[in-house]
Amino acid sequence: MPWRRWVFVLWLIAFVMCPAGIVRADDDDDPDDDDKTEEQTTIPEPSSASKEDQYFELMRVFADTFEQIERNYVKEVDRRKLVEAALRGMMDELDPYSNYISPNDLARFNMQIDQEFHGIGIQVTIDPQSRRLTVTSPLPGTPAYKAGVQAGDTIMEINGASTEKMTIDDAVKILRGNGKDGEEVTIGIMRQGKTQVEQLKMPRAKIQLATVQGDGYKPDGTWNFMLDSEKKIGYVRLTAFSRTTSSELKKALSELASQGVKGLILDLRFNPGGLLHIAVEVADFFLEEGKIVSTKGRNTEERTQYAKKPGTVPGFPMAVLVNRYSASASEIVSAALQDHKRAVVIGERTWGKASVQNVIELEGGKSQLKLTTASYHRPSGKNIHRLPDAKEGDEWGVMPDDTFAIQFSLPEMQSYLEYRRQRDVLSKEGPPKSEFVDRQLERATEYLAELLTGEKKSDATAKVEGSKSPSKSPEKSSEKSSEKSSPNKSDSKDNSKSETKDSKAGKDEARAVEQLPRGVRARTGRPAAQPTLAA
Asked: pLDDT band at 498, cuts 50/70/90?
């Protein structure tokens, strides 16, 4: 066996046997090795030996196979493609949530996690009729918004090049540029009802997507979080759990408090999850005490996250909206609020994902591994995770409270998505009128109105009526001692309810990512929609 194969085997052994954490691995791509070959054509079978010897034997099988393909396959193959295919194959053997993120996919993955990118600040899609790149909405306060880009504008040109045959991915890549602030781009837009192309020049900038949204925009381009100004019912919609979600939510709640909010609807529908510690912070806003979530891994002791009283918002009644696409971090929050009887859960049974993924750096950060390392558990101990062979009658997901289950049919969900898309468009005229009735939101509004006015009561209503503080945790006695040792929320600038920079030591937990599995839309029958991307 030539020396390069032994180096490759040793590298693989180090990769497999290294502990979880930040893993650094460099691709072996030395051109001086290309002319060294080995005539061996038989791959030896692994012998039965100790566990460490078995590692070595298995890595040798991998290395021999790799070399045979490279030397003898009918046509030349790319080394990196082979290794990446092997990594993806390993991840596919584990679970739907573990994944290898290649250098080509890393930027998009980080954008999904951070909800941040460089660009001009627009949402774009391909118009199904004209097949041209079309603005669905400018994002408030961004260069595109300031330059006068409007919803419905057709982008005819980018820096003088026609967009007629551009794919949406290619167009977005050009609009985002090289990730440098201040770099200018010129787009030629065709406004509805006009026949002349208008040229708009604007700088690129860092764009932070809002993950905390209201039901519609106010005239000044900010979100309106007050759903019913007469009854003082607030509405907050979380689209993801990113690094900024906690600070965004704190700001929204402060705004609602200044308007005298008396009840709150927390909408987690279509929220696929996000960062674990942000989910804990969100739940902590509404709970004074008790367990929020516990996590347990194969190589780690169980860790329990508790709510702390300082920083908790007043105990106004709450309703949480969920549906079949509310997953992971969304399930942590809804389950904690339900178990502590802090809110009623309305809508549909949630997705059913109770696993935690850590993001592990490879190649010095050029690629990453998203690996399932732990499972999480709700305060009541009820099962959330949906196994592959789970049946409808089994216990999984977060179920709506009694009498609050409202299932959308597929056509109704498609209508809702179109209704929601139209209301999320920023325009001077405000949200458009629609005949669509969001039955889940309507039920939540009715429930809070009944509770606030006292006109009607039910057993489910009584669960949270008049309760400023949540009821005691199912594990009350053990929580008391743990809470005493927990740091106070308001002790320092590093408190859990303010946005802080992740330290190196806490990077694994901060990057614990919860997302729907690969290919979920194709497998679940989720209503198809024309893709919309941010640029």
From this structure: very low
